[in-house]
Amino acid sequence: MSTRPTRLPSANRILYGADYNPDQWLNAEAILDEDLRLMQDIGMTSVSIGIFSWTALEPRPGVYTFEWMDALMDRLHENGLKAFLATPSGAKPMWLSETYPEIRRVKPDGRRDPSGGRHNHCPTSPVYRTAVQRINRELALRYGKHPALALWHIGNELNGECHCDLCRRAFQDWLRERYGSLEALNLAWWTSFWNQTFTDWSQIPTQSRCIDALPVDWLRFVNDQHVSFLENEMAPLRELTPEIPCTTNMMGAHPTSNYAQWAGVLDCISNDCYPLYDDRDTNGNKFLSTDFTHSLMRGLAKGDPWILMECSPSSVNWGKINKLKRPGVHELEVLQAVANGADVIHYFQWRKGRGGYEKYHGAVMDHEGSTRSRVYQDCARVGKILQSLQPVAGSKTKRAPAAILYDWESRWALKASAGPKQSRETDLQMRACSEQFRALRQAGADVDVLPVGGDFSRYRMVITPALYLLTPETAGRLTAFVRAGGVWVASCLTGYVDANNRCWRGGFPGPELRKVFGLWNEETDYLHDDERILLNGELFNGLESAVASDIVEHLHAEGAEVLAEYASDFYAGSPAILRHALGEGWTYYVGARLSEDAQRAFYTSLLEDLKIKRDTLPEGVFRKTRTGPDGPVEFLFNYNRTPVTLDTGTETYLRTATGETLSGRFQLKPYDSLVKGLISTPSSLTRQPTESHEHEVLPVLC
Ligand code: GAL
Q: 348 alpha carbon to ligand 1 midpoint, in Å?
């Protein structure tokens, strides 16, 4: 985990902006003038620029055409806007790809990508690394002292794997470094199974279905390559502009990018988040999934503010179904990010381009070109709301009493293992994390999400959903936490394998955690999709639908107290949930995937036992608090698509959509957002956003 202190583009100020691509409009100067005026009109403070602009900046090797960028930077500054200047490595210039095919990524089947596309460079290629450093150095030399420059935005959504010969050789070197000898590697990878023993380093491939340790090490290697690629990009920037922070936009709990490791080299955390609006989501689960992602970002930032680098003010264009966001949803999503610690809100994108893959993607400015659009008006209101929320800028989010530990390596090991039900197809670890996050939130708990290596020592309760890969080091930290008075809740699929995806001997959960949990997990049953196992236990409060599905572990108590039992099949009467005292603390073990209401009943009873404060808001209504220098600011959201009655007693809330103040008993509208504790009520929220240019239709310029 990072030891670098967080450095944001603007301390103690909420920034509002968008990805801005004026290089797509260089033949339509008038549009650029309009853009700057309208950005100010809706309260924008910053733009991300130059993300895919390499050829516009360097059309031929060593020939630079910075003039348009010079003018843009100057005009941004004149108009009071800050620049998040991107390094252009996210999309390779054609001239470079054609001259050096080795910079193009190779797919697992050995096919090399064509020249075009984006996010598809080889992260190992020395040619590409050198070219990237050169253009980055030019950018730093030219704009490093420019007053508009606030942040380096490194590449874009760096991710993915390249299976070229360069990467394969680098992987083999990486393994040699890690294991020292082939004997050690063969042992660690259990290669005597099916005669997979390597007799020369050069035989080692980048993928395998029969050596299930290989994909885990491969993804560790891929991450190391991305991190060193980032460091290579940042080297000239940090040398020439040490005062400008660097970040790269992450993609939430991305399946193959271990951002806990990336966080260690960045100056601040930034994320792209595109929850697809789902009108069939009746219980707000979609919003809770977004809360999970935001909480993970907060965890990576160690509670400091972070950047929402991209979100859509309307629909996206890449989903299977691209619904328009219903009234209230966009505003709720923006405030939800702020409530979770975001100090920067940037959209993708400012203006819809006329062509290309994303011409129908949501944007602040539509093709029609006027300010009358629903989305523009929404964005203008959001600009005002963010202005009024400035008092929370820079504040840490209040630490929750409970933390979920999220682990990329367990995710990879589970996916690589044939055995746990459909583990190769189903993302069991991610599913377990989001289900338990949801259950805890629905039971009324405030929850943080930390990467497994994070500092959880000051939490009251730590939850480790499907912590399948468990090293002695992590097991030791968690055990010490319990001994010192903490509560550790583990779920099925805990402690099956070591760092090399080899099963622990001596009985699950390993390593040597049987004594810690006071139980033995003898075997694991994987159920048919429609099969359910009944559960018995006082903590379910007579809930008829308390059942387990999918994964059921056959457990035996070895000192632990049984809180619930299975009530059907051959394991009827054997323990399903157990509690065990250790030192000053407790462990809990939940041996099956519980139904949603059973999970919730379990956490409700646990929170009550532990006297952890529970919020008892109506179903689908959630709150989150940030504390600024002027006191706490509470955000309250209705995640339901239906109205809900709320009684706040004498507490007064502000409805951000209208500026009304509300107290006592009142109706929350569908997707309503309320705020309590603002310094002053922003009266401007009640008036229309655009005054002088209201509903203006711009001429067709291009
Ligand atoms: C992001 C990407 C943007 C844009 C956006 C569309 O993943 O960084 O450049 O493509 O998706 O949703």
A: 7
Pick from 499, 431, 494, 430: nearest CA to 464: 494
Q: Which atom of ligand 1 is nearest to the CA of 156?
A: 8
pTM above 0.85, yes or no: yes
Chain mean position to CA 506: 36
- Alpha carbon of 145 to those of 10, 79, 80, 576: distances in Å? 16, 17, 16, 62
Distance of alpha carbon 226 from alpha carbon 218, whole angstroms:
12
Q: How far apart are CA 287 and CA 683, in angstroms?
A: 28
- CA geometry: angle at 510 spanning 558 and 296, to 5°? 115
Give the per-residue pLDDT at 2: 56
The residues, ordered by sequence, that sit 6+ positions from 209 with a Cβ below 8 Å of its Cβ are none
Query: Are residues 495 and 467 in contact, defined by beta-carbon separation less than 8 angstroms?
Result: yes
| Cα 513 to ligand 1 centre (Å) | 43
Rounded CA separation 523/375 (Å): 54
Quote the tokens at residue 71.
């003018």
pLDDT in tens, 189-205: 999 999 999 999 999 99
Question: Count of CB atoms within 10 A of residue 681's CB?
Answer: 15
| CATH 3.40.50.880 is the classification of domain 402-609 | yes
Q: Which pLDDT value is given to residue 4?
A: 83
Asked if residues 193 and 210 have their Cβ atoms less than 8 Å apart, the reply is yes
Residues with CB under 6 A from ligand 1: 156-157, 272, 274, 310, 316, 348, 358, 361
| Residues recognised as catalytic | 157, 310
Query: What are the pLDDT digits (tens) for 316-368?
Result: 999 999 999 999 999 999 999 999 999 999 999 999 999 999 999 999 999 99
Q: What is the pLDDT of residues 367-379, one digit of tens each?
A: 999 999 999 999 9
Ligand 1 pocket check: which of 250, 276, 310 to mutate, most ligand atoms within 8 Å of Cβ? 310
What is the atom index within ligand 1 of the atom nearest the CA of 312? 12
Does residue 693 carry a pLDDT above 50?
no
**Distance between CA atoms of residues 320 and 311, nearest Å:** 18
Show me where the domains of the chain are located: 402-609
